[in-house]
Fold this sequence. Notes:
Elements: H1 2-19, E1 21-25, E2 37-38, E3 49-52, E4 55-57, E5 80-84, E6 96-100, E7 112-120, E8 126-134, E9 137-146, E10 151-154, E11 164-169, E12 183-193
Antiparallel strand pairs: 1-12, 2-4, 3-6, 4-5, 5-12, 6-11, 7-10, 7-12, 8-9, 8-11
Amino acid sequence: MKRIVLLISFLAVVALCANAQKIYIDFHEMHWIASPSPMPDNYPGEANLYWDNFLYVSPGVWSGAGPGFRVDPATQHNNVAFIGGPYCNLAAACGGSIKLEAMGMTPSHPGFQPISIVLSAGWLPNKVVVTAYRDADFVGTTEWNLTTTPKLFKFPPEWREVTQVAFTPRFIPSSSIYPTAGSMVVYNLLLVKH
């Protein structure tokens, strides 16, 4: 009997893993753009992700890029997504989120597991608070220190089946350049969609 239960459990895990899709997002398919523009809905198409309050730009052709917007020496037209800095709407929260759009009439749907992300602060070092949700239910939060040098950050492994990850750059006190807003630049993101 124990063997049958173990076999059924093993087969269930294999079936769940077979439906998982690893997705690497690095914005290389986006057209280069010389001034910040809102991230398009449903990017990339196979992931069905929505980028609320994120902008994207090609740092090599944008004169407003801060030191945290690194340019790939092989091309001046690499793209990044970002939030905050001088583009922070101070009337609203200075943050953004990556989320799955609900499918059909039911608000509950399979989620994704964020694995890792490469980030920097756009203009000056700051912190970013990262919060995960599953269908509007709180899953967890973490805080990362950002510098203007891109760095790989790993999401907590217990963040499975989330439907939204929110990012809130922490304000920088007494900065003479951008006195009230933190920022965050995204170079790439790895996730598993279930």
